[in-house]
Amino acid sequence: MPGPHQMKTAKPKNFKDTILRIFSYLWDYKFLLILACICILLSSAGGVLGTYFLRSLVNDCIIPIKDGNLRPLVKMLFKMGGVYIMGAAATYIYSRLMLYITTNTLKRIRCQLFTKLMTLPVKYFDTHTHGELMSRFTNDVDTMREMLSQSIPNFISSSFTIVSVFILMIILSPILTLLVLGMLAIMLFVVSTVSRKGVGFFRKQQEAVGAVNGFVEETVEGQKVVKVFCREDEVKEEFEKLNANYRDAAASAHTTANVLMPIMGNLSYIHYALTATAGAYFYLKGFIHDLGTIVSFLQFTRTFSQPITQISMQINSIMASLAGAERVFAVLDEDPEIDEGNVTLVNARLDGDKITETDEFTGKWAWKVPSEGGYEYVSVMGDVKLNNVTFGYEKNKTVLNDISLYAKPGQKIAFVGSTGAGKTTITNLLNRFYDIDAGTITYDGIELCDIKKDDLRRSMSMVLQDTHLFTGTVRDNIRYGRADATDEDVERAARLANAHFFISHLPEGYDTVLTGDGANLSQGQRQLLSIARAAIANAPVLILDEATSSIDTRTEALIEKGMDTLMEGRTVFVIAHRLSTVRNSNAIMVLENGKIIERGDHDDLIAQKGRYYKLYMGMFELA
Amino acid sequence: MIKKFSPCLKGYGIYAVLAPATIALEVILEVFIPYLMAQIIDIGINRGDYSFILQRGALMVLMAILSLFCGALSGAFAARASAGLAYGVRKKLYEKIQDFSFANVDKFSTASLVTRMTTDVNSVQQAFMMIIRSCIRSPLMLITATIMAFRLNSQLASIFLFAIPVLGTALFIIAKMAYPRFAKMFEKFDYMNRRIQETLIAIRVVKTFVKGDYEAEEFEKAADGVRAAQVKAEKLIITNGPIMQLTIYATTIAICWFGGRSIIAGRMEVGALTGVITYVSQILMSLMMLSFVFVSIVMTRASIARICEVFDEIPDIRDNPSSELKVSDGSIEFNNVSFSYSKNKENKVLSDINLKIGSGDKIGIVGATGSAKTTLVQLIPRLYDVTDGKVLVGGHDVRDYKLEELRENVAMVLQKNVLFTGTIRDNLKWGNESATEEEIIKAAKKAQAHDFIMSFPEGYDTELGQGGVNVSGGQKQRLCIARALLKNPKIIILDDSTSAVDTATDSEIRKTFREELDHVTTIVIAQRIASVIDADKIVVLDEGKINGVGTHDELLGENAIYREIYQSQRKGEQ
What we know:
The complex is a heterodimer of chains A (623) and B (574). Chain A has helices spanning 15-26, 30-62, 71-119, 122-127, 130-172, 174-221, 223-228, 232-285, 291-332, 423-430, 453-458, 474-479, 487-496, 500-504, 523-537, 553-567, 579-582, 602-608, 611-616, and strands at residues 344-351, 354-358, 365-371, 374-379, 384-391, 400-407, 412-417, 438-443, 446-447, 460-463, 472-473, 513-514, 541-545, 571-575, 587-592, 595-600. Chain A is of the alpha/beta class and 623 residues long. Chain A folds into 3 domains: 15-332, ABC transporter type 1, transmembrane domain (ABC transporter transmembrane region fold); 344-379, no CATH class; 410-436 and 446-616, Rossmann fold (3-Layer(aba) Sandwich), CATH 3.40.50.300. Chain A has a 6-stranded mixed β-sheet with strand order 10-13-14-7-15-16, with helices on both faces. Chain A starts with 14 loop residues before the first helix and ends in a 7-residue tail after the last helix. Chain B folds into 2 domains: 2-312, ABC transporter transmembrane region fold (Up-down Bundle); 332-573, Rossmann fold (3-Layer(aba) Sandwich), CATH 3.40.50. In chain B, strand 4 (388-393) and strand 5 (396-397) form a beta hairpin. In chain B, helix 16 packs across helix 18 and helix 20 crosses helix 21. The model of chain B has no long low-confidence stretch (mean pLDDT 84). At the A-B interface, helix 2, helix 3, helix 5, helix 6 and helix 7 of A face helix 2, helix 3, helix 5, helix 8 and helix 9 of B.
């Protein structure tokens, strides 16, 4: 991961649109922004004018005074003082304004980015790594910060200074200005040559960084294996090579960045020297009539080269920020999950056959289906049907082929098969992480895509293969399943999942803070917690994807009762490696290459003596 | 801090010295230029001396060119020195991590170690570059420019004696006040980033529980925290600019006033005035630079602290490098062993473990999740050290062996195992660098891996992706067993290493172990009773204590826990 200070060589693709878009954000603060711009101009005008006044000070208030009259000098100094104070005040005001505008804009962009990520389909997260998305927030937004708070004000004030100084120089002495033009050409040439060279070096450095980071990640991840095999010396040696390579690349890259400043600075001194010599020469020749002009002009040559150096240093960082902004905007422009569903999930109260909607949590749910002239209520039963479903994560590569299955309310359906057979895919289609390519799925007789996505997901509890816990207390983590659950509810859910025992043995019980994805718990304990989290949600459909794979068989037997209670009256989909877990299902589907090759209950499948039988007898290895 | 980092500069110290040295030269030259200019105006023009003007002009250009080269060179030296330092720090960190025991690795997470080696080292590199470029430049500029100004006109220059301390103190106070605010800001940043990372990793959980809006709300709070902290911190820093401007301007006006009066009174020349004014900006700019350096050091302090944490971490396990002791056989003995992961001895994971294992025995260990099976076996190759008691291998305390000798003889297949990028052959050779083709195939055959390896078109030369992504779970486990066997160990420990292997292959592996590796002590941790059923001795662990030891039949008769485990797995087979 490149640090925030590193110059990036990536060039933005669409310059104009990106800049316009950044300004559209800033436009929210248009009055403040205009005020800031005025202050920036005043601030640089303060510097320029102050220098210009030096000329009158010498020419009009010092040199011609022979009688010791100090009044003109005092007057001039007050004038200068006024300009200077204005300049300093303007600097302070625009810095504060820009700080306010920048931090608020960045907060807005960060929040937009985050909110956007929450709406993106799961597919997006499959194709983008966490590291990549994290760097949108860290590196890219950071470079935008630099641009908003430093580069843009700098650019405005530098450009203004260059132009106004140049004009004043022409007014002061057109001859000496010719020298300025010559110097300017040389400076531009140097800047473009050095930066062109730098681009290549920075690219090389980026590659070297990647190699080092990759190696560190792999070997630190496998640190324990390295130790068990006493391979410390070998990996050190290998690392040494990559590390040295990175060092050399970094040295060349930073050299090009470092030399620019002294070269530009000293070119301006050469310019200064030439101007002083030429000025003195011209003065004696009579081309220049007063010493004050030379003094001011000399001051100007310094003021002139500084903003040029500034801008040349800014260009790299502006380019990097624009590229970063472009990447941020690209995320903001992604299509969110499509949701055309209009059937919603409501809490329901049953009076005989009549369903009434209520705001209270009743533990009963109903679908609110819009119909002509009002709504119809359909009780949520958990009746799921898949008809001839075909699906592929990528086009032309089907993962599920013509799958048909029915789950009646309260039934337990199990999926068995090798990794990649499509078990998890089926559950991903049920909660619409992905949308099917062909066929239909109905839920209580309603087409799946007619149900509002959020409500569909609320009606299903899932325990996923990879348990993920959040930083926070154990209680918070369980309550994640239902925000309004009481402490008693939390404890009941924990007891159901047989998690209560180990939780009460944690140092702070339910208030123990978990960090780093629950790093202080064993894999089995984390699975118990995620079962409790699903239990508290109390949804009519339950999906267990390898939910007990890391729990030993004895503990699994202990939680079996809890699981049975949990599954009671719910439609359950189970995926498990361990066949003992799926044995008592109403139907077991054996999947292979996206097709159901065997189906039936345990006894049927054993009697068939097919794939399931072989698996069960341990004659076949599940990959 | 300097003591910890200076060895990292080894070999690059010369650049770290040359960079400020060349910069010093640049500064001196740079400082002389306004002095010469004053001479041109006051002496050259006044006397109308063309040759003096041209001569001084040429000298000025020459000095500027020289100064340019010095400046460029010092830039290059600084780049080299800082890249060298970063290299040294990374090297030291990496080597330190290699010395870490398992307990040390557990303490820092993998992700945090990686960040320390990358982002943190990077910011140290940047700060160091800035320091060596300014630490000499700014003070030297300050001193020489002041001296030159005094030479031009000591009365005028004495104004600096007021301005410099005022500005210096102001900048120092600001930087000092800013530090805690920046530290706070970084904390807020860390918190926000952690929220993002957690949500990204758990995106499916967030979606299944429909928590997108909730997370977005929480995030907004975090982002607002960052915003507020940033405003609070930077609000201070931005006062730097106007304060410096005000000081420069005030000094300029004061100099013009006193200088103007002197010139009018005929006590001074115009050139001296402009020269001194040029020095004003040089001096105050260098003070500004110093305050920047100060701020950037402040901002890197967090990174430095994180790197030092790794440097300062004392490896839990001390090697005994001078030990000549050889592991004579594969016998193991646990003597009143207790163990705790934390320093807190109350929180014992293992207690009162007494167990004797003869050389060549086949041992099975079973027990519930969290019963400390893995912890127990990790004490044998000294991946952790006991808290109390002793572990003996080959009749000697494991702490008396050289670590390499011990681990060469105790092979362990970890539960969470890792294969590395490279070919299958490369990975197997981890067990024994000098293994012949024949030995490799023999080990693979013993681990029942040869057949599936040969089924790949490239055979042993098949490239494995990072973490061995292109082989199945069961295949990966068998490769890891083969890798361990290549060490030709006296003791081999399989920690739930055949869980993804089908039962038929599993029993083949066990058969090979019994028949061909009868002299090797084998310890198998397993969930499946079938994997340990024919062991010489089965150890039942329960909450860190030995609950029973015996053969399958014995335990089935007398051990309630064992019976329960057995029955939980039998149920379906009836």
